[in-house]
Amino acid sequence: MTKGTIGPILCASTALLVGYALPATARQADEGARRSAAPHSSFEDGAAPATDGDIVVTARRVEERLQDVPISMTVFSQAQLDNRNITNGADLAVYTPSLTATQRFGSNNTSFAIRGFVQEQRTTPSVGVYFADVVAPRGGGAISAGDGAGAGSFFDLRNVQVLKGPQGTLFGRNTTGGAVLLVPNDATSEFEGYLEGSYGNFEMKRIQGVLNIPFSEAIRFRVGGDAMRRDGYLRNLSGIGPDRFGNVNYYALRATLELDLAPGLENTTILSTSRSKNNGAVEKLTDCTNLFPFGLLACQQVARQAGQGFYVNQNNLPDPRSLARQWQVINRTDWQASDNLTIRNIVSYAELRNETRVEVFGTSFLIPRQFGPIADTGALAGLRATFANSSSPKGQPNAHQSTFTEELQFIGSAFDNRLSWQAGAYMERSRPLSESGQLSPILMSCPDQDAFRCTDVFGTILGIPGLGSLISSFGTMRYDNYGLYGQATYSLRDNLKFTAGLRHTWDRVEASNKYATYRFLQPNVPIGFCTFPGVGPVGGGPIADTEQCRARTVVKSQAPTWVVGLDYNPAEDVLLYGKYSRGYRQGTVNPFAPPPFQTVEPEQVDTYELGAKTAFRGAVSGTFNLAAFYNNFQDQQVAVGLLSSANAATPTQAIVNAGRSRIWGIEAEASVRPFERFNLSGSLAYLNTKVTDIIIPVAAPGSVYDIIQPSAVKGSRLALTPRYKATATASYELPLSESLGRMTASATYSYTGKQIFALTARGTLDAYDFLNLNLDWAGIGGSPFDAAVFVINATGKKYYLSVSDNTRQGFISQLPAEPRTYGLRLRWRFGN
Questions:
Q1: Are 767 and 777 in contact (CB under 8 A)?
Q2: Where do the segments described as Disordered lie (predicted)?
Q3: CA separation (Å) from 18 to 13, 15, 331, 765?
Q4: Where are the alpha helices (DSSP H) in 246-376?
Q5: Is the peptide bond before 560 cis (omega within 30 degrees of 0)?
Q6: Partners of 255 in the β-ladder
Q7: How far apart, in whole angstroms, are the C-alpha atoms of residue 684 and residue 689?
Q8: Pairwise CA distance, residues 300 & 296, whole Å
Q9: Residue 169 pLDDT > 80, yes or no?
Q10: Which of helix, strand or coil describes residue 291?
Q11: Which of 45, 235, 370, 494 is 20 to 30 A away from residue 213, measured at CA?
């Protein structure tokens, strides 16, 4: 796919005249309905329970009331996103039951997990992220990149919908965990917009703006942007590289053009682009033992940061960075073919580029003159060494991928609307735009690793030549995904509905990679070998070029998935439902693992769910939603560590189909208005996970990797699954005169229980909680100006987001979460 082909594809999509569209008059009526149901100001919390049942969602690819959808889901309006200061995927996970996020490599590379379904590094996502009904572009790189909500995704949205459980029939890509839907605002028939600025501590500056222009009744245009900068909250004490880590620096632009081509025929094009460049997130050493040699050096590093505070770390890379660039064009054509048949076509093309240079464990080891039993380290004294870092070389990405999708949908009804149905076809093709990868020094001192200027410090000190190494891993990934699906709901009675859906998916992944290991028997003199046995020169001798190490791997998978369920309305505003669904996640290739661990077969899950959605109105109004579920997880894709007892190869990781698990839990969400002006809302999730069976592969005879360490054992809990997670929000509108505007104070409390980050003795994250405060003043003095004051983590709680347990080497690293942040927002609204 080239840029020159995009125009013809979009023109062809329009020429197809396919999709679901409303006539212009109906569209305007629907637009007006959405306006009347919206909060009076985007600065309000928007959580009034009396109208929760009227929230419109698209969880089943059509517009429905939230309370009518038999799916466990959490929905946030744009106002709620703003009041909780949600600017990235990790922020979203804080407030969503059963949703967790890992940002081990920073906010640009966040991945999601729902109900224990985790994305292991170099597997496809277990949680699909969709913007305007199009799946997020793939990364396909050496680390987790892409497949998520990019920088600047959380502005000018109708809502964000988090769907829990397998999404295996209606959505484009099969997932076992769930889906996150970002629904952008439409271009409207009114001239309107806003300009907003924010300022806060850590020199935070953010500016947003949206302009909506109706050129005519048939042509509507909307454009918006979001940009933010903030200093890092982690002070770097090493003196190498930037002074701060954890900073924010991004911009995002989005434009929407809607055309009413004819009665019942509408075409929408969305063009978006974003760029985020920051210093990344670097863990800090938090614990150590005097284990020689690395524990001893770690303790010296911990001593250097003693008394410097909680928010510190140390770095050994002179130019760390996290860069993510993405652009995407989406074209949707909607055609109302008849009263009972609508057709929709959605086509998209996206490109993603990612560059990450990170000190993986935050190690900046300083070699002392006297080192344990070594009386004199000689010329090595004073050198800085790393335990491990991961870096894309200058000018080269570690992910550079294009993604093209095409989806054709048919939506219809029959038998006096007692039967509603959908059917369609899906295609996704992702191709490399260049070769991508990384250089990773292990136990080395590298002033310029891109130029292979490295010294095997520990090998020299310990008298083990070649102990340290520089890993070079580069290649390409190609993905092909196809699916056919159909789903129907039939009203057996006015208050009883039966739903059944079926989909078949075909997937193919191809990797072409070259993996080499460089040893330094003399400083700055690399000698390269192909890392994996059987690849490269006969006898495993030195290589002249990494092309000698190239290997190609292909894996194909296919599977049916389905859903069956019953919905029952025993009374108005009461929905009871039960369903059984089969979920599937495709097999994949892990080219950075040694044979025979380079291919991974698909995993599947059987999910059983019972739920209730209720709404009550009157003097006290509100909603209460409850879901209970049980998952039987099979052929689970599990990470294992591969080590060489003789240090004949650098430690690495593989993904194997080793596990079976059972996951059950309860999710509850409620909102209530006990009296006028006062709202309460909250959620609670309980997760009980257990690995019921696991088969650890045995090392092949003669394999250089003779030690295999699993990331799970029989009877253990699954990673990133806190047993309890809860949030509660209270908001009160002050009794001011209407001439003064509307002022609302709110507070949100969030609790996340203890969770396993890695299956090691010290690989557990402690429970944490925090409090957010917000004060909004909408329509100040009857003017078009709004203001808000916010405080995030108001009590200044200190906790960690990740943990790397390297106790065998003598140290532990963790990533501190953000401290207290606060600021002021001002908005000017114009037009309607």
A1: no
A2: 31-50
A3: 8, 8, 11, 50
A4: 294-304
A5: no
A6: 223, 271
A7: 16
A8: 6
A9: yes
A10: coil
A11: 45
Tokens representing residue 434 in the block: 């260049």
Give kind and range of the element (H or E) at residue 366.
strand 365-366
- Look up residue 478 and give its two tokens: 């190609």
Give pLDDT, residue 28: 39
Cβ neighbours, 10 Å, residue 111: 28
Cβ neighbours of residue 781 under 8 Å, at least 6 residues apart? Answer: 739, 740, 741
Average pLDDT over residues 590-605: 83
Alpha-carbon distances of 457 from 84, 382, 632, 775, rounded to whole Å: 48, 11, 49, 56
- Whether the predicted pLDDT of 21 surpasses 80: no
Place of tokens 């396919």: 18
Query: Residues, the chain, total?
Result: 832
Picking from 142, 258, 171, 300, the residue whose alpha carbon sits closest to that of residue 583 is 171
Q: How far is CA 624 from CA 78, 155, 491, 665, 818, in A?
A: 22, 28, 24, 17, 32
Residue 779 in this model has a pLDDT that exceeds 90 = yes
Query: Of 52-56, 212-216, 650-654, which has the strongest mean pLDDT?
Result: 212-216
DSSP 631-655: EEEEEEEEEEEEE-TT--S--EEEE
Dihedral in degrees, nearest 10, Cα atoms 309, 311, 312, 317: 180
Mean pLDDT of the chain: 88
C-alpha closest to that of 663 among 685, 687, 684: 687
Closest alpha carbon to 160 in 193, 129, 183, 141: 183
Q: Which residues contact 371 (CB under 8 A, 6 or more apart)?
A: 293, 296, 377, 461
* Cα–Cα distance, 486 to 421 (Å, whole number): 7
Strand ranges for 523-571 from DSSP E: 525-530, 550-571
The confidence score (pLDDT) of residue 120 equals 67
- Asked if residue 180 lies in contact with residue 74, where contact means CB atoms within 8 angstroms, the answer is no
What's the rounded Cα separation, in Å, for the pair 335 and 323? 40
* Main-chain dihedrals φ then ψ at residue 118, nearest 5 degrees: -105, 145
Cβ-count burial of 494 within 10 angstroms (0-12 exposed, 13-18 middle, 19+ buried)? exposed
Task: Say how far apart CA 511 and CA 556 lie, in whole Å.
Answer: 12
- Element spanning 90, H or E: helix 89-94
88-97, 387-396, 596-605, 771-780 — most confident range: 771-780
Give the model's confidence band at 43: pLDDT under 50 very low, under 70 low, under 90 confident, else very high.
very low
Cis peptide before 816 (omega within 30 of 0): no
In tens, the pLDDT along 663-690 reads 999 999 999 999 999 999 999 999 999 9
d(CA 47, CA 156): 17
362 by DSSP, 3-state: which?
coil
If you search the block for the tokens 């938090």, which residue do you land on?
286
CB 160 within 8 A of CB 154: yes
CB 488 within 8 A of CB 416: no
Strand partners, 249: 229
Domains, the chain, with CATH or none: 3-831 (2.40.170.20)
Cβ count near 463 (within 10 Å)? 8
User: Using CA atoms, how far apart are residues 318 and 44, in angstroms rounded to an integer?
Assistant: 44
Over its C-alpha atoms, the chain yields an Rg (Å, rounded) of: 27
**CA dist., res. 14 & res. 8, Å (int):** 10
CA gap 14, 346 in Å, rounded: 10
Helix (H/G/I), strand (E/B), else coil: 379: helix
DSSP letter (8 states) at residue 544: S
Alpha-carbon distance values, 713 to 116, 660, 661 (Å): 15, 10, 11
Which residue type, as a one-letter code, is found at position 721? T
Rounded to whole angstroms, the Cα distance separating 278 from 274 reads 13
